[in-house]
């Protein structure tokens, strides 16, 4: 690639990865100096020990986005070196989620376990070059010998074993002669290093465990630090982009490549995503699933891609969010409201408007002829006139929201109350005449009159009403279950707890409310799973995959009010 041609943004195409950032700047510089022969080759390396979450989306967008921008490639690589925690279910879900987000690894799906043979040969090479030794210290002893940040470590008594003895022991470790934990292969680096990762890190451990791909072929498994850089090297990765907690591992990454004399990619660290009211730790998410605090990895309250997809999030909204947050070298926490803002922006454009009543109150229009049906014209999306219009049936008995009627209205309440006139969306003006109550004194039905001259929502005499409410014709309504969600945790930082408590203490007891008696306009009869709608005045909703013939289930994706847009406007000096 011609380096002067690489900045797609300057050629008039919007850069795929958004505004520039320090990772992109490094790539631009490398292209200028021809460091990698014009190549940009990244990878996304999940460990298949859980479902992907919104934090991973940041990494996916960055890796795939940058490579795409510069005509490069991105590999999907499963970092499957922990046989005890990994499963095929996770592999499958990860592939599905990356595709759903809109990215394609083409024919480059790899597994660290593909390289176990090569990694073993390299370990033998390390022993031969005096860079690795078999150590008989237990895990606990290794920890004690390691020292602390302020004290240097102590050398293992096995550090100076001869090469033949090391080769023999390592071979026998592989052959399964020794029990789990009895020996390790360690890199001979520097027990006095200020960087604890360099104090003779473990390269291989003994683990008699079935691997989801290699079965029982191996009973020694490479550690992350020994496997990762070498996997990058094998695949010819140019920029190995990872999160900041690996910064202290970079010297070791470099050391292994140097000691082996192999192709040496560049590791670059960026800040991981943290979101308010959200946990992004696979271990904790797994606990929520295992202990039944949620219905599964795809529970719509989960921050997993499977969960937010089910909730109704779109790939476009997530990609736009990831662009907007950028990447940096300092860890911070992003407001959940920003993610929701991007979601609303996207849904506003694509979601057809419909009317749905979630908590129905019966309304009888006394002066409307029995049996008559009026088909009223309703626009599908004011943001997209090409979305057209539909007909909504109007009849003598309707449903409105219970909230839209008050027998004793407070001062600022302009919706329906006895004697008050309001507009029915796309319909007529109606005036409330009376309310019917049950023995408990609750309003169960209200009576109104309508003004036939106000069809379409305007009075010929120019009189005005102060509010417009939505409604559904009772005779035509379809029934649905609607699930309303709030954040899964009630604290902005779910990890912030009192003494002796853990994050579970911060679970929001009101994160799910199920409404089973909702009434929808008939155009929603054939709504298909994952499709999006704006229920007028209520928010954005999407069809849950639990929907089956005769049972329509909706999730509230996000409410309408966009506090983020207001904050932004205020910050920009607006009112
Ligand atoms: P967890 O701590 O939740 O287990 P992880 O980092 O161990 O996450 P991996 O499967 O190893 O999960 O992650 C795959 C890639 O995604 C890594 O490159 C990792 O740095 C990146 N990643 C994980 N979490 C985040 C996050 N919150 N923000 C940005 N990138 C992330
Ligand atoms: Mg990890």
Task: Describe the structure using short key phrases.
575 residues; alpha/beta; Rossmann fold; Ribosomal Protein L25, Chain P; 3 domains; seven-stranded mixed sheet; 13 helices; 25 strands; disordered N terminus; binds adenosine-5'-triphosphate; binds magnesium ion
Query: Proportion of β residues?
Result: 15-25%
Q: Would you tell me the structural class of the helices and strands?
A: alpha/beta
Number of separate strands: 25
- What is the distance, rounded to the nearest whole angstrom, between the alpha carbons of the first and last residues? 48 Å
Question: Could you name the CATH class of the largest domain?
Answer: Alpha Beta
Number of domains: 3
- The averaged pLDDT comes out at 94
What's the CATH architecture name of the largest domain? 3-Layer(aba) Sandwich
- The largest beta-sheet arranges its strands as 10-23-24-25-21-22-11
- Ligands (ions, cofactors included): adenosine-5'-triphosphate, magnesium ion
Biggest sheet architecture: 7 strands, mixed
Q: Using the alpha-carbon principal axes, give the shape.
A: elongated
According to CATH, the fold-level topology of the largest domain is Rossmann fold
Rg value: 31 Å
| CATH homologous superfamily title of the largest domain | HUPs
Contiguous helical run count: 13
- What is the share of helical residues? 25-40%
């Amino acid at each position: 690639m011609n380096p002067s041609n690489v900045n797609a943004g300057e050629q008039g195409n919007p850069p795929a990865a958004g505004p520039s950032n320090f990772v992109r700047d490094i790539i631009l510089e490398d292209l200028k100096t021809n460091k990698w022969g014009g190549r940009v080759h990244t990878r996304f390396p999940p460990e298949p020990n859980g479902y992907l979450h919104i934090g991973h989306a940041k990494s996916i967008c960055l890796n795939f986005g940058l490579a795409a921008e510069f005509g490069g490639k991105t590999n999907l690589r499963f970092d499957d070196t922990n046989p005890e925690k990994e499963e095929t279910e996770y592999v499958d879900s990860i592939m599905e989620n990356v595709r759903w987000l809109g990215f394609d690894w083409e024919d480059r799906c790899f597994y660290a376990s593909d390289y176990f043979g090569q990694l073993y040969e390299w370990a033998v090479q390390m022993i031969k070059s005096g860079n690795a030794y078999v150590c008989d210290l237990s895990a606990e002893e290794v920890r004690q010998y390691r020292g602390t940040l302020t004290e240097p470590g102590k050398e293992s008594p096995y550090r100076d074993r001869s090469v033949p003895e090391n080769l023999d022991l390592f071979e026998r470790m592989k052959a399964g002669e020794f029990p789990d934990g009895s020996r390790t292969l360690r890199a001979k680096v520097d027990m006095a290093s200020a960087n604890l990762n360099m104090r003779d890190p473990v390269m291989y451990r003994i683990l008699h465990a079935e691997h989801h791909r290699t079965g029982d072929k191996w009973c020694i498994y490479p550690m992350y630090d020994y496997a990762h850089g070498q996997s990058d090297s094998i695949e010819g990765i140019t920029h190995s982009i990872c999160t900041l907690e690996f910064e202290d591992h970079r010297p070791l990454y470099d050391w292994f490549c140097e000691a082996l004399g192999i192709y040496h990619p560049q590791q670059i660290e960026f800040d991981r995503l943290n979101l308010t009211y959200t946990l992004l730790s696979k271990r904790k998410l797994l606990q929520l699933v295992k202990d039944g605090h949620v219905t599964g990895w795809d529970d719509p309250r989960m921050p997993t891609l499977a969960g937010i997809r089910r909730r109704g999030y779109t790939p476009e909204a997530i990609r736009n969010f990831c662009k907007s947050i950028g990447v940096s070298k300092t860890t911070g926490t992003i407001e959940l409201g920003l993610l929701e803002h991007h979601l609303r922006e996207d849904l506003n454009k694509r979601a057809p408007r419909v009317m749905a009543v979630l908590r129905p109150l019966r309304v009888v229009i006394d002066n409307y002829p029995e049996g008559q049906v009026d088909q009223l014209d309703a626009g599908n999306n004011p943001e997209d006139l090409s979305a057209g219009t539909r007909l909504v049936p109007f009849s003598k008995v309707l449903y409105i929201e219970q909230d839209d009627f008050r027998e004793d209205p407070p001062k600022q309440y302009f919706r329906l109350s006895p004697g008050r006139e309001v507009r029915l969306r796309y319909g007529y003006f109606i005036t409330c005449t009376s309310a019917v109550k049950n023995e408990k004194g609750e309003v169960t039905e209200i009576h109104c009159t309508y003004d036939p001259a106000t069809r379409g929502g305007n009075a010929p005499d120019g009189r005005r009403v102060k509010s417009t409410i939505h409604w559904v014709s009772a005779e035509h309504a379809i029934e649905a279950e609607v699930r309303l969600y709030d954040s899964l945790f009630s604290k902005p930082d779910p990890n912030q707890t009192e003494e002796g408590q853990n994050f579970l203490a911060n679970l929001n007891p009101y994160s799910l409310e199920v409404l089973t008696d909702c009434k929808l306009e008939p155009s929603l009869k054939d709504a298909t799973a994952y499709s999006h709608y704006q229920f007028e005045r209520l928010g954005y909703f999407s069809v849950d995959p639990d929907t089956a013939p005769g049972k329509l289930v909706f999730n509230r994706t996000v409410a309408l009010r966009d506090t983020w847009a207001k904050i932004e406007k205020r910050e920009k000096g607006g009112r």
